[in-house]
Amino acid sequence: MFTTSTNDLVSIQFYQGKYMSIKTVLAASLAVAALTGVAAAQDYSLPPTYGSVALNPGFLPDPHQAQVVAGGTIDASSINNACVGLIANAPDYRLQYGGGGSQLFIGVTSSVDTTLVVNGPDGSWYCNDDYNGLNPLVGGEMPDAGQYDIWVGTYGSSTAPATIFITEYDQ
């Protein structure tokens, strides 16, 4: 399971006595729609821009690397306030992971300050910025099998070359 989840950050309870007014119900519905609709800005149903890979535990070479161009026009904080940077609509890269491994890490290296957003197999969003200097990393023990969609962001409107790496080694 990855360690930096944004899945449980918003918990809202609406209660106002015995009865709620239509105005209150409408306001609550709009708030929920706004909170749940923002994560749809990143469309993981689109094909990844820079390719995909299927890996099983013990894969070689480790780390697996993929060259991408980081950046986009969508504010990653629209997924959650813990996410930062500007990312694309379509995933930059896709990992199909076989599962059963003891740990898995997804990171980015670049000569510029990059950010990382990953949508895991269970629908959870994982975000990181500056894990190692200006390079982000997400991951942890007992990763789920399935599809990991990966976005690499930048600050500002510029794009930059970046390398996604996927590894089972300690980071």
TrEMBL record:
Keywords: Signal. It comes from the Bacteria. Residues 1-41 form the signal peptide. This is Peptidase S1. It comes from Maricaulis salignorans. The lineage of its organism: Bacteria, Pseudomonadati, Pseudomonadota, Alphaproteobacteria, Maricaulales.
